[in-house]
Write a structure and sequence with these properties.
about 375 residues, Phosphatase 2c, domain 1, 2 domains, 11 helices, PPM-type-like_dom_sf
Amino acid sequence: MPKPGHTGREPEDGAGARTRLPAPPGWLRWLPVLYVAAVLLLEPATPVEWPVSFVLIALPLVTAFAYGPVAVAGATVFAVLLEGVLAGTPCCAGRPVGYLWDRYYVASYVCTTLVGVLGTILAAHRTHRERTLADVRFVADIAQRVLLRPVPHRIGDLLLDSLYLSAAAEARIGGDLYEAVPTRYGTRLLIGDVRGKGLLAVETAAALLGAFREAAHDEPALPALADRVETSMDRRAALLGGNEVGERFVTAVFVEIPAGEPVLRVVNCGHPPPVRIRCGEVRELDRGRSAPPLNLGVLAGEPYHVEEYSFRPGDQLLLYTDGITETRDPDGSFYPLLERLRAWRSLPPQRLLEQLHHDLLAYSGDRLQDDIAALAVCLPDGDPAGP
């Protein structure tokens, strides 16, 4: 597939996008023409006992693969007329005039008409299904834009870009999430992965993003921000009740990059650690003090630990979900993220994620097993001679 990539790229708006049907491959659109051409080439070379024109019965079904009911009905009329022309043409294999109303040819006209009716119904049903799918995908695109809003490409001195890939060919939204919010405390980032799939995961992701977007402006400390988001998640899960409460947990990483300070702060809640790219160094920011995933912190009773790392001009930070590192090649080997990043360390955020996008699809043979989200943040080096 070509799967959904950078969510920062806006899809088309307007009602026209909602009803536009996917175009079939070019070879499929030419298939009816090629089919008729093959019949016209073979008919003169066949004996009277087995005229090739009988295979025109299949022309309506061939047309139904790529065209709508009107085109199929037209192909049916054309097939019947062409069968009649070929039946009454004396030049074909020495055929004399008079075969036009031969009982075998009349049976062929009737069968072609019946197949044409069935092909027209089939084409109408296929077109309806495709239009319904186009409507569903349009709604999913809108939901995706509401749930995962495009991150700003610049916040203060920072350059940002994002990536979202769905494992399902027709899916647009899932449980992976990210966000970047400019606040008076600095730029605050979030990336997370909801346990489970489907609408339950989407609902949980929406609740988490809503809580983060609100609390990011109010809480001065990063651990307090994580605690407030978890409280909101606990409250929402408790309202739902049932056995699903314990399953609605989210691994997440909260990051704060203060303006004008060469540091970044990280609170990790059971999520793959961020990666800092600095010159020739690619380092996972992990000191082994990760907190439990959100919605499980109350059960564990452990406080959130904030870790501080240097973040200088020229550095780049990559936040990602485990769908990246758990991507496998046809031999079952996991994706070597750190090794790839060492080769791409000089790329800016947009090009880095584009390269990661294409490389993941190539590595997996275009068969991703899990949703993937990534957020890249760079602090440009204004002074090439600087540290």
